[in-house]
């Protein structure tokens, strides 16, 4: 693969080249990893930045419908939109359906939009391991907004905050008790809560739910990255396309405030440090997949089961064999 040529095509907004590049960075092959590193290093010199928006919500809340309607609105404003959707992988087979693109039929036909579903594989936190690399590729391709849709499994999906500029949480009307609003975890990192399905018979319920969460947000500790009034809760309807302009205006206001106050650059720098540490952790874990490590783990596991060694002593034995000092 000619990396220089692929890089030039991405910088010229070639969607096919972008799709090929994401496939490359998601590959676990050693030769592909070397090529992916070379590609990402060359593209970072472009200095292009997009507004990265992380989105999460429980299954059935209407994430795909909202993203399509929201994306169509942004395209209508002359913006280029990329959607990176992470689908859950099977715990049995490891496979994924990757059906998000088929559910965004209108947006997928837009020349100014790019949709890429990816499997979560064994990575926890609601995103795939290489989602950050995919975001960087979309930025280099000149997309103005990158929407990152998480798996949508619950309150532990906080990793998305480490690769987005703003994090939006999508909730359904009357989706749970008000105590959820003050629980730590995903609620604590949300920059904006959007109560979806505020239409028809659910409109009044959505308004009440929004008011409940707005009150709960005021109980959370003030964060330095928020101006007055944030985080906030709003009602939207993906079906009727109502409330989207208001949500977009608030997103722009928050992003601009963070740029002017310096939080934007500090956040991105902190994220780069987080992913550096994550790469180190993953590289160390990969050493456990070598034939020697697997064989030694089997032997030590049997000794632990028989009571011949304690788990701590067996772990020290294995780490010593790997050349890692257990402090």
Strand order of the largest sheet: 3-2-4-1-5-6-7
Order of helices and strands: HHHEHEHHEHEEHEHEHHHH
Number of helices: 13
Instruction: Give the amount of beta strand, in percent.
Output: 5-15%
Kindly state the number of beta strands: 7
Structural class: alpha/beta
What's the pLDDT, averaged over the residues? 85
The N- and C-terminal alpha carbons lie at a distance of: 43 Å
Q: Which geometry do the CA atoms define?
A: globular
Q: What Rg, in angstroms, do the CA atoms define? A: 22 Å
Please bin the fraction of helical residues.
Answer: 40-55%
Largest sheet: 7 strands, parallel
* Unreliable parts: 89-97
Summarize the structure.
This protein has 327 residues and is α/β, with parallel strands linked by helices.
């Amino acid at each position: 693969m000619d990396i220089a040529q692929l890089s030039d095509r991405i910088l010229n907004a070639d969607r096919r080249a972008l799709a090929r590049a994401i496939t490359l960075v998601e590959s676990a092959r050693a030769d592909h990893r070397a090529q992916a590193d070379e590609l990402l290093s060359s593209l970072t010199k472009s200095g292009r930045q997009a507004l990265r928006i992380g989105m999460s919500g429980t299954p059935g809340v209407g994430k795909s419908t909202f993203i399509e309607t929201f994306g169509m609105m942004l395209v209508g404003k002359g913006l280029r939109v990329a959607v990176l959707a992470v689908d859950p992988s099977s715990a049995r087979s490891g496979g994924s359906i990757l059906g998000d693109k088929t559910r965004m039929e209108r947006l997928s036909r837009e020349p100014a939009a790019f949709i890429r579903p990816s499997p979560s594989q064994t990575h926890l936190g609601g995103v795939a391991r290489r989602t950050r690399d995919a975001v960087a590729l979309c930025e280099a391709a000149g997309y103005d907004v990158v929407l990152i849709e998480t798996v949508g499994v619950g309150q532990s999906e906080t990793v998305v905050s480490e690769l987005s500029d703003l994090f939006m949480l999508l909730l359904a009307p009357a989706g749970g008790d008000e105590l959820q609003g003050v629980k730590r975890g995903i609620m604590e990192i949300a920059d904006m809560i959007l109560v979806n399905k505020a239409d028809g018979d659910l409109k009044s319920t959505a308004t009440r739910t929004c008011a409940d969460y707005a009150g709960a947000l005021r109980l959370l500790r003030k964060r330095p990255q928020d101006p007055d009034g944030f985080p906030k809760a709003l009602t939207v309807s993906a079906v009727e396309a109502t409330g989207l302009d208001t949500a977009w205006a608030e997103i722009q206001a928050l992003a601009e405030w963070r740029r002017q106050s310096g939080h934007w650059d500090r956040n991105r720098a902190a994220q780069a440090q987080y992913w550096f540490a994550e790469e180190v952790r993953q590289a160390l874990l990969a050493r456990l997949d070598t034939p020697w490590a697997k064989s030694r783990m089997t032997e030590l596991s049997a000794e632990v089961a028989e009571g011949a060694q304690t788990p701590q002593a067996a772990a020290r034995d294995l780490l010593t064999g790997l050349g890692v000092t257990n402090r």
